[in-house]
Design brief:
Helix content is 0%, strand content 49%. By secondary structure, it is an all-beta fold. It has 2 domains: 38-167, Immunoglobulin-like; 171-294, Immunoglobulin-like, CATH 2.60.40. Strands 1, 2, 3, 4, 7, 8, 9, 10, 11 and 12 form a 10-stranded mixed β-sheet that branches. Strands 13, 14, 16, 17, 18, 20 and 21 form a 7-stranded antiparallel β-sheet that branches. It has a 3-stranded antiparallel β-sheet with strand order 19-15-22, with no helix packed on it.
């Protein structure tokens, strides 16, 4: 996003008599016996399927040693490295604080430095990352994991922990273009003519089954707009995906819509103006409100 405002600037650099000396590297913590090892997650996250933000869970690994030390761990999972809710899965991965991806099939040996946090305790963190944009059904998703301390003699000890994410029922509604893309807008009928039609599209994303309600501010009439105007009304008819919408204050459609993919389901709203004979010229308006009612 940065432009070329500085492309013609040149900074001459003259270095004479400079000796470069590399700083000594920090010495790695010695290998040690961490004592009794435990592992636990810091929280159960609330996961919103249509959020653009990843959710993270900190995994705290604690030992009872009294000084910093380095151990080698490997990670395994009884849930296949994902979070499960019956047959549904929520993908995730586990990383070190430095960002290294850890395989959860027991094949990845990785060093971890445990640092003192109390007089008789050391600790290190791993991070579980649940990527965004996973349109999964609502429910509690859980996974079982183990970290094993490994050495030349094999597995020294094992610590178990579980991860959990609560997936909420969520819907997302927006006006859409005919192809489902952005740029949707309301309906402008143009000239006031009997039988003139207009169409708009509504995209609905939902991870739950849902129903649809439609409500008209003016009771399914176009009303002459402007202060001091007479109460002139023009009836119009409405269809949602080809289904006639009843002329009720709040019209709940009988269809049950199943959960959609992350891209959403494109729905068509169609309108037809009624008889305009004898109506004065002017701008006639109404506002239609669409509500998605989650059923799960």
């Amino acid at each position: 996003m940065m432009g070329n405002a500085f492309r013609n600037l040149v900074a001459p650099l003259l270095m004479t008599g400079i000796t470069l000396v590399s700083a000594p590297q920090a010495r790695a913590a010695p290998a040690c016996d961490p004592g009794k090892l435990t592992a636990r997650a810091d929280r159960t996250v609330n996961y919103m399927p249509f959020s653009e933000r990843a959710e993270t869970i900190t995994i705290r690994i604690d030992g009872s040693a009294d000084a910093a030390c380095q151990i080698v761990l490997r990670l395994s999972s009884g849930s296949g490295g994902v979070l499960l809710e019956n047959e549904n899965r929520l993908d995730m991965d586990i990383r070190t604080r430095q960002g290294r991806l850890l395989r959860s099939d027991g094949s990845d040996h990785f060093p971890v430095t445990l640092l003192p946090v109390t007089a008789n305790g050391v600790s290190a963190d791993l991070v579980a990352v649940i990527p965004p944009r996973q349109s999964v059904p609502p429910g509690l998703y859980e996974g079982a994991f183990e970290v094993e301390v490994v050495s030349g003699e094999g597995v020294d000890q094992t610590a178990s922990f579980s991860l959990a994410a609560r997936v909420a029922s969520q819907a997302d509604i927006r006006l859409a273009a005919k192809n489902g893309g952005t740029g949707g807008r309301g309906v402008d009928f143009g000239a006031l003519e009997s039988g003139r039609e207009g169409t708009t599209f509504v995209s609905v994303r939902s991870n739950s089954a849902y129903a649809v309600e439609l409500e008209s501010r003016n009771g399914w009439f176009l009303v002459l707009a402007g202060p001091g105007k007479p109460d002139e009304r023009i009836a119009y008819a409405t269809w949602f995906n080809g289904f006639p919408v009843p002329r009720q204050a709040v019209a709940r459609l009988p269809e049950r819509y199943e959960p959609s993919s992350h891209d959403g389901r494109l729905n068509q709203l169609q309108f037809r103006i009624g008889d305009v004979a004898g109506k004065p010229a002017g701008l006639y308006e109404d506002t239609v409100r669409l509500t998605v009612i989650l059923l799960e």
